[in-house]
Amino acid sequence: MLKRGVAVADLLALFRPLVSFPEGAAANVMIALRWIHIVAGILWVGMLYFFVLVSSRFFPALDAPTRARIYPLLMPRALWWFRWSSVVAVLVGLSYWMHTATLDAHNAHTSPGRVFWTFFLLWTLAFLVEMAVLMAPSPGLHRSEIVVPIALAACAIAAWVYLSTNSQGWESNRVLAIGIGGGLGWFMMFNVWGLIWRVQKKLIRWHSENPNGGPLPEKLANLSRAAAVASTVNFILSFPMLFFMAAASHYPFLG
Fold first, then answer.
1. Integer Cα distance of 171 and 151 in angstroms
2. Are 77 and 111 in contact (CB under 8 A)?
3. pTM of the predicted structure, to 2 decimals
């Protein structure tokens, strides 16, 4: 009977899941932040791809009255998820990154301050360069062939300066890769709130007040083109952003 009991126990042990959760709250908080960041990021980028690849081609194919009926119903809800998922993804991701960078810096007996202030300064300046072009009085500047190269150049310069100024020796691949990928996300979030959402509010209001559709007023049409260009910039930047976020843990090439 004893041998049989031991045999049964050994058999059950083969099917026992090997689960051992980390002890302490810190590890659980960090994995929760990563999980929330990933879910919000999927929602944000997914909505971005929907707008650029689907709705931007769907709405122009509709007749004016149909477009005027659908636009105020679809876009407010879609844009709510779009803009707030961008905030959650960026802010939660920043919380995770700043915590890990602080730990790395403290282990090296130094301060993470430069990693942080250069992040906010450089990526905000890159956005302001793009916004200056898109908000310029001349509508002729609001074209993808003009804005996209300028935005990409501004982001490339921001990334190069960021790496150059954060080469004290303690910065890991994870810190630097997220500093660039997260910086692109910071830039893109400003595009969402500073340009795309501001224009979309006006478009939703205009379609609601003009149920028969018709041509947009010239000023609103110019703003609509500028918002479309900002969406194109975000679409293009999403690919290097996702690369750097994945490279943080899976492709050590920085630092």
1. 26
2. no
3. 0.91
